Amino acid sequence: MEFIPKEREQVLLEKLTTIAHREYVLIRLTSTMLKKSIIDASASIRTLLKSQDLVDYDRMIPGEDKIILKTKVLTSKLNETKASFYRPKTKQGDPRFCVYNMRSYMRENEMFYMTVLNHELIIIPLVESLFNLKLVTGLFDTDSELDIKKELVKLLIDLKTKGPIKSVSPTRSNPKDIGETLERELGILPNSSKLADFKSKVEIKAKRHGTGTKDTLFSMVPNWTISKIQSANEMIRKYGYESKKYIGFQDLYVTVHSKPNNQGLKLEVDEENGYLRQVFVDQKGEEYETCVWDLDQIKKRLYSKHPETVWVVGKEVFINGEIYFIFDKVEYTRSPIFSSFLLLISQSQVTYDWRGRVKTDGTGYKDKGHCFRLNPKKRNLLFGETESIEM
């Protein structure tokens, strides 16, 4: 993510994504952008415009083609203007765009949110003095509740009325037992599908009260065919550490985020080339790419796994020495926003976990699913809609 919002801008962005369930880009204005009325169309901007069938820079002839779009700038009022999209003959025909009269709306170093609605460009300054919540709410249409959501919520409410539910492993506590118990009660068979759990529409996630762990979003290994490292097995052997529990094994149970971890691993978003890269940073600060994920494939996985998600929290209680759960807290989310996913990676709020072991000779490989995870406090930014369900 090229532009990272500051604290006050982040607050406004989270309000926006709750109302507008749409992909977006963030742009921070420089003096050059304002003086010359020229903004470089980065990969994220080009992707947004092309996905909406508005502008395809690849088909533009430098110095000849120009596309003009109606544009709304939402400040304290709704401003109607235009934006032009083109490739100049000079500067290798780098893709550019210009929002007319931008200097009359915003100042240098201010950030704006840009999306597309009804084939028009929408620009909203992330500036407190200009942010009009009522105007923003009125612009974006809100969807009604879906029938599948209502059906699932009713099942969860009925489950709560049953009282304590015996665990699938009543005599032995483990991290997965609460989720497996909930799935058993809802009639969902254990699976490793890339689709959502409930009728392939709603993903169900469960955890205990008081658990401070991150939300597991989905498991996904890198694209090994184009990575320097060729497999998870090799990854653990190269960057793992001696297992304290299993003699002769290498462990790799680490979280990778936007800054180097103890193993020297970190994530970098490369929107220009369409990759999420994991790099190793040595003691001299030199960086070496280890593996990559295709952003398009991550996006597809996020959308297919979390079209709608119900996050359930349950209390663990003991009855006659056995483990039971009372499922009493539910949050519903839907409409994941991939733009936010990339931003959250850059902010270390979405991370990647390696979870596995292997013998030093490459045999005996085991893993618990290498996966992307989310700080639960940031659900409202990743998902366009969040709602706490009264139980």
Short note summarizing the structure:
The protein has helices spanning 7-19, 31-36, 43-51, 133-139, 147-161, 177-185, 232-239, 295-305, 338-346, 379-382, and strands at 25-28, 39-40, 66-74, 78-86, 96-99, 111-117, 120-125, 165-166, 202-208, 215-219, 241-242, 249-256, 265-270, 275-281, 287-294, 308-319, 322-336, 350-359, 366-367, 371-374, 383-389. It is α+β, with helices and mostly antiparallel strands and 391 residues long. It is globular and about 75 Å long.
Characterization of this structure:
The chain has 391 residues and is an alpha+beta fold. The protein contains 10 helices and 21 strands. It has helices at 7-19, 31-36, 43-51, 133-139, 147-161, 177-185, 232-239, 295-305, 338-346, 379-382, and strands spanning 25-28, 39-40, 66-74, 78-86, 96-99, 111-117, 120-125, 165-166, 202-208, 215-219, 241-242, 249-256, 265-270, 275-281, 287-294, 308-319, 322-336, 350-359, 366-367, 371-374, 383-389. It has a 7-stranded mixed beta sheet with strand order 1-6-7-3-4-5-2, covered by helices on one side. The model has no long low-confidence stretch (mean pLDDT 91).
